[in-house]
């Protein structure tokens, strides 16, 4: 029968564990040798000290070698956070912003091991999350996406993120030229700035991706938003009529052509069809960083320490009782 190999994963830096071990084991061993009247008690404490030192060294049984999924892709989400993101015409009466969050999560699931970044835009563009492989950071950032404060909402351009995206892609290419750069543009294509939007001009910086469109031709009413992300009553125009935002698919198709990626209208459902022509790069199981799994045995020594402490407490209590009987004039 093959015995699984052991490994050590110290709870504290091992030099500290060694020093503590020498002090604890050395002291209890010395007391065991010099205190002949309490050999049992000091023998127990020596065993407790040894168990404590072993536990602090983090004993474990090695397991299998696991590998993370590896990907050669850097993904850049360009997300529309103008007031129209609060229009309630996505997959029923969900806001478009909810649709963005859902699809970002689906894309992440379809592309394990990729690095992700988020650029949001309204009247200006900003990097909300730099490139990372931390999927929890991506989920948190996506869940915290907020539409701009509608009180200060003005005209916005659908390509206002052009310069910010270009600088970010150039930086990624310079640092890791071997990685594909995939761009997913999520928005409704509604141009509210008075001038025509400047086209995306990114050259060979984009290797794949897709433009994902949200909203309907009929449009949806928009809730007002505040600086802290809370929503209020529906927005009204200058005549007091409900403010309605409509998708502009022609504009979105133009953006897709400029980026050199396909356009897909999104209304919920499976994300896979939207990724078929996106050329998102490859994900290879078993080619990522190796991770050696192990089963910690600290609990075994912690349990042993607890048992020895209980026995020590019992022995000490019994000796105290005997001494009290002697002092009271009784039999020991």
Automatic annotation (TrEMBL):
Protein name: VWFA domain-containing protein
Upper taxonomic lineage: Bacteria, Bacillati, Actinomycetota, Actinomycetes, Micrococcales
InterPro entries, per database record: VWF_A, vWFA_dom_sf
UniProtKB keywords: Membrane, Transmembrane, Transmembrane helix
Keyword GTP-binding attributed: no
Keyword Transmembrane helix assigned: yes
Span list, region Disordered: 221-246
Domain VWFA: 74-197
Organism: Janibacter indicus
Membrane-spanning segments: 12-34, 46-65, 297-315
